[in-house]
Amino acid sequence: MQEKSSHGSRWWYLVLILPFIATLFPQIYNSMTPALAGIPFFYWYQLLWVIITGLLTIVVYYLIR
Q1: Are 42 and 30 in contact (CB under 8 A)?
Q2: Distance from the CA of 40 to the CA of which of 9, 17, 23, 64 falls in 20 to 30 A?
Q3: Residues 15-19: contacts with CB under 8 Å, at least 24 apart
Q4: Which pLDDT score is estimated for 2?
């Protein structure tokens, strides 16, 4: 049986819902502009959330651990 960690709470897991909500409705980010280095907004917005999700996962892991 694991002891309860005093470092964090389970509420930090809710932070991991942010990427899901940010990409849930493509109507919000379905556009060509603004382009970033020739890449349409639709694609770089999703790629940005892949990076943000990785960073959020690391942060939540260390806060919960």
Answers
A1: yes
A2: 17
A3: 15/56, 15/59, 15/60, 16/53, 16/56, 16/57, 16/60, 18/56, 19/49, 19/52, 19/53, 19/56
A4: 54
**15: which 2 tokens?**
């932070």
Range of the domain at 27: 10-64
pTM check: above 0.85: no
User: Structural domain tally of the chain?
Assistant: 1
Task: Please check whether residue 49 is in contact with residue 8, taking contact to mean a CB–CB distance below 8 angstroms.
Answer: no
Task: Give yes or no for a contact between 46 and 23, defined as CB atoms under 8 angstroms apart.
Answer: yes
Distance CA 53, CA 50 (A): 5
